[in-house]
């Protein structure tokens, strides 16, 4: 684990979804990790299909590695003719300098080989390749020609923009290199007012512990029912949270970890967030709240405390984890985006998820059937969450 995390932390745009810890979480839920690295010393990628083989990376000069990718593999069916069929997903990968044309072409071509070798229905990637910054057509909007070139190359090589965007294509990033006073000055006036209001009304923020996780899941379930989104069972989130929380006890500070921040009023938890840290970047991943004391604006103080803690840890960026696909008031994320925008961040628009389908027939079948199954699963998941809250 040390070798893999250390390796990817030195590559451009390292992400906690590419870490050994994330692979271990997903391995408990039907996914098998495949670790790929590229070096000028290899004719093709070095491929490790077992985590205990990662120690071999210690035999390589880390400075010789110029690209890496954690690929998650899931078998579609366990029996019959389709037993060899699988789906592959590289969350926020591959990691490389995307401005290096020979390298990116080599990585793309090798990933195509991996997909065929594995019998994949598709291979999904969603690297943080920037297409532009700022809200489109806004005064601060800027387009990145390099991202457009990569998109054109992917299309030419047979990749297609995925209809299933697992992660957010767009996000809001806050620069933490400036002083706390400068961070406050960048915020919208109403946001600064609400932070001061929360402090005045007695909202206090503390770092959560593992003993708080059951309470936090119940709050998350309450939030999901109120805001009409589907979540997984308690065991899944506890696995994610504990895996990353435990990692902070025996690893260097630039390796992956997370912490819950809990806002309380008179000792009663009213809202919380989970902040993940890796390689100089912080991520706001999960947020939850109760109806009580909402007028005291605890969510504003939570985010301000998260920004300060991330800065104190040496992070340069705080990723607010998500912005609308379409920047208009009809988008379901518009209200959340306006809240994030008030914190003084910059919109960053990325490539999004792209699929490579070695077998178009199976890809078409999968694409038509799976959305229907997901609708059923979401309905059952929402009902299960509501039922658990009534117990």
Main sheet properties: 9 strands, mixed
Class by helix and strand content?
alpha+beta
CATH superfamily heading of the largest domain:
Gcn5-related N-acetyltransferase (GNAT)
Provide a count of the helices: 11
The third-level CATH topology of the largest domain is Aminopeptidase
How many structural domains? 2
Query: Which class of the largest domain in CATH terms?
Result: Alpha Beta
- Total number of beta strands: 17
Which regions contain 5 or more consecutive residues with pLDDT less than 50? none
Order of helices and strands: HHEEEEEHEEEHEEHHEHHEEEHEHEEH
Task: Please give the share of residues in helix.
Answer: 25-40%
What is the CATH architecture assignment of the largest domain? Answer: 3-Layer(aba) Sandwich
Shape: globular
Give the terminus-to-terminus CA distance.
40 Å
Please list the strands of the largest sheet in the order they lie side by side. 8-7-16-10-15-14-13-12-11
- Portion in beta strands: 15-25%
Overall pLDDT score = 89
Q: How many whole angstroms does the radius of gyration measure?
A: 21 Å
Structure, described:
The protein is of the alpha+beta class and 391 residues long. The protein has two domains: 2-129 and 145-163 and 351-390, Gcn5-related N-acetyltransferase (GNAT) (Aminopeptidase), CATH 3.40.630; 177-315, Aminopeptidase. The chain has helices at residues 2-9, 20-27, 101-117, 145-156, 180-186, 189-200, 213-227, 234-247, 298-312, 334-341, 360-390, and strands at 32-39, 46-48, 65-75, 86-90, 95-96, 120-125, 130-133, 142-143, 160-161, 170-175, 203-207, 257-265, 268-278, 281-289, 317-319, 346-350, 354-356. A nine-stranded mixed β-sheet has the order 8-7-16-10-15-14-13-12-11, sandwiched between helices. α2 runs antiparallel to α8, α7 crosses α8 (234-247) and α7 (213-227) packs across α11 (360-390). The longest helix has 31 residues, at 360-390. The protein is globular and about 60 Å long.
